[in-house]
Amino acid sequence: MPEKVYNEAIPLIVKDLSLETGSLPATVSGLDELKRRLVPIINYLLDSDFSRLLNALYRIDVDEPKAKRILATGLPGLVADNLADIIIERELQKVELRKKYRPE
Question: What does the alpha-carbon distance between residue 100 and residue 94 come to, in Å, rounded to a whole number?
Answer without folding.
Answer: 10
